[in-house]
Write a structure and sequence with these properties.
233 residues; alpha/beta; Rossmann fold; globular
Amino acid sequence: MSASLEGKVAIVTGTAHGIGAAIAAMLEKEGARVHGIDKDTVDVTDSAAVNAFVDTIGGTDILVNNAGGVVGQVHHPLEDISDEEWQAVVDANLTSTFKCTRAVIPAMRERGWGRIVNISSGAGRSVSLTGIQAYASSKAAQIGFTRQMAHELGRHGITVNCIAPGFVLSNPTTIAQWESYGEEGQAKLVEAIAVRRLGQPEDIANGVRFFVSPDAAWVSGQTISIDGGHALF
């Protein structure tokens, strides 16, 4: 086991499957004590629930804001989107990131050390393949939030970075999306990826490993696309 994160306490949101589970497993392998949460254990859009959870585990050294998604929605024209549908997606992706980050900052600032990694999406740097407007907007906002918090927290020894994953078969939603494309659509998507394969959850976990490692001590406010080169096209 690597000792690079020995003694560090980490929170990873959205660990029920896929990317979040891979990130939690990687951090544990690196020596961290990991607290994984998902929607069945902590509502990360609820301030009281988030604060209570953070209080129960004491100080947090590492936070990975991975929770999010399209909350079961599919594309509709913007004029047909209700306020509630829009807010549900924004809350799942952006509001949860804000509330979890806010909860862990005091302990990180007191210790003079912290690592925050936000998991955005290629949709936040381009457009959403799902066509869900609130998803693309909230993922782009996560990137802006990353930059702003890096600027604010760097003086306290806290770095804040972001990953924009490409297409990863990581959960029932992405599997259903992939299957909906059919053979022709699937081939077209893979052809648009420079390395000609879909991503694996471990590909994203490897990016998190870098951002929380000692090698990234002077890296903050950055967003890296881990997408096999899809962003090149």
